[in-house]
Structures are given as C-alpha cells and as structure tokens.
Amino acid sequence: MNVNEINVYLQRAREIIGERSEAEIAYDDSVVAHLSRGMDIKRAVRAANQEYPDEALTPGPDHWTDLASRYEYIREHKGILKRLGVKE
C-alpha cells in the first residue's frame, strides 16, 4: 500500500467515523475493548456506559445492528492503524 492509498483510506475512515471528542474516543475505545474480549454489543455498551456515564449511549431496539456495525468498523480500523504503525 503506498502513501497515497493510505491517505485516501484515512480520509475515508475519518468521514465514516466522524469527529469525536477525546471523551467520545475513550468511550469508543472502551466499547471496542469489551467487544474484543468477546462481549456482544449490548454488554459492551453497558460496560462502557458504566465507565463513561457522561458519554453513555441508550440506543433503541432498532439501533443495535447499526451500532454493532459501527463498532466493528472502528475495531477493524484500529487494527489497520496498528499494522500501519499510524496513531489516531
């Protein structure tokens, strides 16, 4: 992968994930960590909500699938960044 391809990927990832505050990043990292330990999305969000109550999510029944997809994307993105040696 060349530098141009990496930059295009990073730009697209920023568009998909969106702007986040430091607190939102910490919350997202917590959800991803819990998912990586084998929790399902509902348990991971509940655990992150306890750790970061100011950032707590309260998704409705119709939002869990989308939320799971978002966090799976973030998890994969973090893995790609790690392999590339790039900091967020």
Distance between the termini: 18 Å
Envelope shape: elongated
Multimeric status of the protein = single chain
Characterize the biggest β-sheet: none
Q: In percent terms, what proportion of residues is strand? A: under 5%
Mean pLDDT, to the nearest integer, reads 95
Helix content estimate? over 70%
Given the structure, what is the number of helices? 4
Give the beta-strand count.
0
From the alpha-carbon coordinates, what is the Rg to the nearest angstrom? 14 Å
**Secondary-structure element pattern, one letter each:** HHHH
Determine the structural class based on helices, strands and strand pairing.
mainly alpha
Residue ranges: pLDDT <50 for 5 or more in a row? none
Count of the domains: 1
Structure at a glance:
The protein is an all-alpha fold and about 90 residues long. The protein is about 70% helix and about 0% strand.
